[in-house]
Design brief:
Number of strands: 7
Number of helices: 8
Structural class: alpha/beta
Order of helices and strands: EHEHEHEHEHEHEHH
Number of domains: 1
CATH architecture: 3-Layer(aba) Sandwich
Distance between the termini: 34 Å
CATH superfamily: Glycogen Phosphorylase B
Shape: globular
CATH topology: Rossmann fold
Largest sheet: 7 strands, mixed
Strand content: 15-25%
Length: 211
């Protein structure tokens, strides 16, 4: 039987003292000025075809397109889509599906990406390093996890959360990651497809009330 896990953080915030360079922080503030007044939620639709614990591109496009609709209708949020060099295509696909286009920041360097996350209300990502980056600035995040050990990979901070619909603990991919690279079990989509939009929206509302 599937079990949905939405965690309550166990650790006090850890903040790295090294600040974002002023030039990158200023760039991020200027970049976000085009967003209407209100909450900005950053979304990182992370994909990696070489990592079988991550969902397929098709599932990610569908999930994030529908999630954006719900975040706009239920939360009245402004959306920032973030993607790395290998994710520009999927970011564009998601944005093309939206009637009202999102602000997009794909293929930016790590300092500019960090500065953007710092100035957002929340980050929602698929098991990516940006969830850990958000914790550096105490920006709340929700990490969506597939068949992988959350105890080894999720961000650990007071404002970092994860949602995982556990299907079968016997097929969870272990750590270190090289043990699961190029495996072809194709089970990630069945895990991610069981994470409902309602679960994500409820967690966003919970975080919004606390912050």
């Amino acid at each position: 039987m599937a079990e949905l896990i939405t965690n309550t953080p166990l650790f006090q915030p850890y903040i790295i003292s090294t600040p974002i360079p002023e030039i990158d922080d200023t760039w991020a503030k200027e970049y976000l000025k085009s967003v209407p007044a209100g909450m900005i939620i950053a979304l990182h639709p992370s994909i990696d075809p070489n990592q079988p614990y991550k969902p397929s591109s098709q599932l990610v496009v569908t999930l994030f397109t529908e999630l954006i609709k719900k975040l706009r209708s239920d939360i009245k949020a402004n959306i920032l889509l973030i993607g790395g060099p290998n994710e520009a295509e999927i970011v564009n696909s998601i944005n093309q599906n939206c009637i009202d286009k999102c602000l997009v920041a794909s293929n930016q360097d790590i300092l500019k990406t960090a500065a953007l996350i710092k100035h957002c209300k929340l980050l929602i990502n698929i098991d990516s390093g940006l969830g850990h980056l958000a914790s550096v600035f105490n920006t709340p995040s929700i990490t969506l996890l597939g068949p992988i050990m959350s105890s080894r990979t999720r961000p650990f901070n007071m404002n970092q959360y994860f949602i995982q619909n556990v299907q079968d603990t016997n097929v969870m991919y272990g750590y270190p990651f090289y043990t699961c690279i190029n495996r072809a079990d194709n089970i990630a989509d069945s895990w991610f497809s069981k994470i409902s939009l309602a679960d994500i929206i409820d967690k966003v509302k919970e975080i919004n009330t606390k912050n």
